[in-house]
Amino acid sequence: MPLRVLVVDNFDPWRCFVSAALQGHPDIQDAREVSDGLEAVERAQDFRPDLILLDIGLPTLNGSRLLNEFAVSRLIRKSFSCLKRTLRM
């Protein structure tokens, strides 16, 4: 199953290098890139990546806080998904 990857890093050369390297890999469906935490939150909601490569030292919303945002968001989505399956029964 091909993966969708989001590369989050504020250092342009590194972010572009990683994204380009992933694009050529057969297990990667799509690799997108953003340069800050706020943009990552917005892009992740639309793109719904399977994997996020995250720089911890981001300027606007640092990687640690961003990781918490993603974890909480995923937990909410999982809970909602379980609830929907239960209600259909």
Q: Notable features of this structure?
A:
89 residues, alpha/beta, Rossmann fold, three-stranded parallel beta sheet, 3 helices, 3 strands, globular
Task: Describe the fold and architecture.
It is built from three helices and three strands. It has 89 residues and is α/β, with parallel strands linked by helices. It has a single domain, classed as Response regulator (Rossmann fold, 3-Layer(aba) Sandwich), CATH 3.40.50.2300. It starts with a strand and ends with a helix. The model has no long low-confidence stretch (mean pLDDT 80).
Question: Brief description of this entry?
Answer:
The chain is α/β, with parallel strands linked by helices. Helix content is 55%, strand content 19%. Helix 2 (37-47) runs parallel beside helix 3.
Number of domains: 1
Biggest β-sheet strands, sense, barrel: 3 strands, parallel
Report the span from N to C terminus.
29 Å
Q: What's the count of strands?
A: 3
Mean pLDDT: 80
- Given the helix and strand composition, which structural class is it? alpha/beta
Tally of helical runs:
3
Name given to the CATH architecture: 3-Layer(aba) Sandwich
Order of helices and strands: EHEHEH
The fraction of residues assigned to DSSP E strands is 15-25%
Low-confidence stretches: none
Lateral strand order in the biggest sheet = 2-1-3
**Broad CATH class:** Alpha Beta
Considering the protein shown, what is the CATH homologous superfamily?
A: Response regulator
Radius of gyration: 15 Å
